[in-house]
Amino acid sequence: MEAFVQNFFNVSLLVDSIPSLLETGLINTLVLSLFSTVIGIAAGMVLALLMVSNVRWLTVPARVYIDVLRGLPAALVILLVGQGLAPVGLEIFGPNPYPLAIVALALISSAYIAEIFRSGIQSIGRGQMFACQALGMTYWSSMRYVVVPQGLRRVLPALANQFIAIVKDSSLVYFLGLLTSQRDLFTIGQNASVNMANLSPLVAAGLVYLMITVPLTHLINHIDRWTNRFSNPGVQNKKADDKTLAAGSTAAVALSGAPSLTDESGKH
What we know:
The chain has a single domain, classed as MetI-like fold (Orthogonal Bundle), CATH 1.10.3720.10. It is built from 13 helices and no strands. Mean pLDDT is 81; it is low at 235-241, 247-256 and 260-268. The radius of gyration is 27 Å and the shape is globular. The protein is mostly helical. It comes from Paraburkholderia acidisoli. It is found in: Cell inner membrane; Cell membrane.
């Protein structure tokens, strides 16, 4: 037990690892995750619109792309992009694999986000589209102004969950051999663990990951409760009507002088 604690929870090594993890690793992890998520959202929306269209030559390529990217391991996609597109990246970005890491993570996230958007769009009743057509709106204008905004509100928690997944997948970019100033949390923790022959720095990196993911998880739960409250006004109205009816009946009984239901139940 003592050897386990010394190898994974060496306090001095944990504390020594925190500055570099926060100053370099945390910033790079967030940059990788945010940029890849933003690009993934843009590409995912396009893919989702292609998926819900009635044109087969648009839906089939989108479905193939989504199935392939979701089916492949994230590490393999990062290697295929980072090393397979290295000559192209060298001409565009120079000897810097950082942009290719963002592209690889964006490709992964776009496939998952496309499915999230598709489910949100298809959760909107077809009556919405029929109403838009009755008003003379085209298919794409109906999607833009009516269907898609409603679908987006319903999938906000799922999008936040996908961002958490990208934060964790960003640990795989160490395959690409990033520069010292570009290393993410996992890479810094791994390198320190190898140099010190102790896994405590890697555990410290995991603690910083928890600093990102745990608050985000609670934020997602709050967003989910908020969206459910406003997306089900009928339930809220019914609860309010029930309370009003109960209060009204109690007041009526009190005015008539007859024993109320609560009084009768109290006697039993």
